[in-house]
Design a protein that fits this description.
With 583 residues, this protein is α+β, with helices and mostly antiparallel strands. Among the domains are: 198 residues, 3-Layer(aba) Sandwich (Rossmann fold); 153 residues, no CATH class. The protein contains 20 helices and 17 strands. Helix 2 packs antiparallel against helix 3, helix 7 runs antiparallel to helix 12 and helix 19 crosses helix 20. The longest helix has 46 residues. This is DNA repair protein RecN.
Length: 583
């Protein structure tokens, strides 16, 4: 058997508690004390160790921080030990040390096994460590959703398997329905978008723009617009280089360069340096001849036709119309056309997509109907066993004639509401199925079963919740149970039976109970009292273990408000004897 036991807690500067050590029994520990003494701080301390919300108001006035430390005996095979070691924690001689610090400014820090960890890790450990139940849990049990959760938890894999499949199908249905709704409700907008895209694509296709065409046409327009000046300049440059045919006596650059070359050529053999200069002059002559030839060809080929200029300007105007609407340049226009075609194909495929989604939605609804029926069947079977087990526990809690049952039903879907078919009926459904689960209580023979929210008194509700937890302890146990005054509204014989049942639960788990009932405290293996004293300056609370005569005095106080009352002492001793006989 894997053993996990919360051995003790050290509480410092938390609320009314200045410094106290709470040593817990591995079995049943009862925590008692006067109203306002600080019993709630014990529960709060454990809550902080379990990753509960930190509140700067919890820090004792004048203190810099509140600190809660816990020592947990763990088996290396336990889930608590494994998860802690995964986070880098180390065990101390088979024990796991946990601490939580809350500063007066509200900052919170957590340590597990000597390693600083996120506070969230404490919450993860708590899931496998402690089940906490208080008066708020009683109120929670009144809600149908919590009752369904309790039933599902008890049913275990029989419900968990179908519920997991149902949840996946339900989430997919939600996604499909959302996409389908968007497609259908935005049909007009999407049709308008498609029309605009088609118009733009047709306009671009009609113009047939080519990549870089706008740049080329701009250069051609510039050339055609200055054709005469360009031709005149080319002709003049050609004449300067090669001479004018109508002026044979004119001096030109080519003739001058040729004369320079001839002058050097005759003496080049006498000096290599001069020969090199002659070669360079020859190269200049060749280059000038080439340039002169190109100038002549340029002037001859230059197109000065004004009709071509008109054609170019007209084409540029057509391209400019496109760039004003679809991009800064033709490259941007072509990119818009490519993206627009892809988007249009997507929009044109909406009708097909709507058909696909509609078919998937219908298939998912049919699948959900089958899974919801499987869930309902599993819950109905588990409900009978759960109700019988809780009823049996109530018999041990001074409610021998009480009967607990579950009502499992489904609400029919209205015509305008999309439902799923379960058992031949269209019913409403949600993320957990189509079932509405309600816990019913018949407190005595002849009384009709009524929802516990309406038919159970405070004391009955406390015992129902305790019975439910005891049943859970047998099917899905945790190492430690903390009950915070769940016995409120219970008294007399019923209180004795509550104490007896908690003692029985403590045989297989650690049980910590904060109580005001002596009948419950008498059954504890360890009885702790939270005491508050006033030294005139600082109010302090301490936690003491009650044994022997001290325990009799405390039970007497709880019974009669008088520690020295002979009748109360006799009653206290009788309670202790009854508890010892039970154990």
């Amino acid at each position: 058997m894997v053993v996990v036991v919360l051995e003790e807690m050290r509480i410092r500067a938390l609320g009314v508690i200045d410094d106290a050590v709470v040593e817990l029994s591995p079995g049943f520990t009862a925590v008692t004390g006067e109203t306002g003494a600080g019993k709630t701080m014990v529960v709060t301390s454990l809550g902080l160790l379990l990753g509960g919300r930190a509140d700067a108001a919890l820090v004792r006035i004048g203190a810099k921080a509140a600190v809660v430390e816990g020592r947990i005996t763990v088996d290396g095979r336990s889930a608590v030990a494994v998860r802690a070691e995964e986070a880098g924690a180390e065990l101390d001689d088979g024990a796991l040390l946990i601490s939580r610090t809350v500063s007066a400014e509200g900052r919170s820090r957590a340590h597990v096994g000597g390693r600083s960890v996120p506070v969230g890790l404490l919450g993860e450990l708590a899931d496998d460590l402690v089940a906490v139940h208080g008066q708020t849990d009683q109120q929670g049990l009144l809600r149908p959703a919590r009752q369904r959760q309790a039933l599902d938890r008890y049913a275990g894999a029989a419900v968990a398997g179908p519920l997991e499949k149902y949840g996946a199908a339900y989430r997919r249905l939600r996604a499909v329905a959302a996409e389908l709704d968007e497609l259908t409700t935005r049909a007009r907008e999407r049709a308008q978008e498609a029309d605009l895209l088609r118009f733009g694509l047709e306009e671009i296709a009609a113009a047939e723009p080519l990549p870089g065409e706008d740049t080329e046409l701009a250069a051609e327009a510039e050339r055609l617009g200055h054709a005469e000046a360009l031709a005149s300049a080319a002709t003049a440059a050609h004449a300067a280089l090669a001479g004018h045919p109508e002026d044979p006596e004119g001096v030109d650059a080519a003739s001058l360069v040729a004369g320079a070359h001839r002058a050097l050529e005759g003496v080049r053999s006498h000096d290599p340096k001069l020969a090199a200069l002659a070669d360079r002059i020859a190269e200049v002559g060749i280059l000038m001849s080439d340039v002169a030839g190109e100038l002549a060809g340029y002037a001859d080929d230059l197109d000065a036709d004004p009709r071509r200029l008109a054609v170019v300007e007209e084409r540029r105007a057509a391209l400019s119309h496109l760039t004003r609407k679809y991009g800064q340049g033709i490259a941007d226009v072509l990119a818009w056309a490519e993206q627009g075609a892809a988007r249009l194909a997507e929009l044109d495929g909406d009708d097909d997509r709507i058909g696909e989604l509609t078919a998937e939605r219908d298939a998912l609804r049919a699948e959900l109907g089958e899974l919801a029926q499987a869930l309902s069947d599993a819950r109905t079977e588990a409900a009978a066993r759960f109700a019988d087990a809780v009823t049996a526990e109530l018999a041990s809690l001074a409610m021998p004639h009480a009967r607990v049952t579950f009502a499992i039903s489904q609400s029919e879907a209205a015509e305008e509401t999309a439902g799923i078919e379960v058992g031949g009926r269209a019913v409403l459904f949600g993320p957990h199925g189509a079932d509405e689960v309600e816990l019913l209580l018949a407190p005595h023979p002849g009384a009709p079963p009524r929802p516990i929210a309406k038919g159970a008194s405070g004391g009955e509700l406390s015992r129902v919740m305790l019975a439910v937890e005891v049943v859970f302890a047998g099917s899905d146990p945790v190492p430690t149970y903390l009950f915070d005054e769940v016995d409120q509204g219970v008294g007399g014989k019923a209180a004795v039976e509550v104490g007896r049942r908690l003692a029985k639960l403590a045989r297989t788990a650690q049980v910590v109970v904060v109580t005001h009932l002596p009948q419950v405290a008498a059954f504890a293996d360890r009885h702790l009292v939270v005491e508050k004293t006033n030294d005139g300056a600082v109010t302090r609370s301490g936690v003491k273990a009650m044994e022997g005569e001290d325990r009799v005095r405390e039970l007497s106080r709880m019974l009669a408000g008088q520690e020295d009352s002979e009748l109360a002492r006799a009653h206290a001793e009788e309670l202790l004897e009854t508890a010892r006989a039970t154990r």
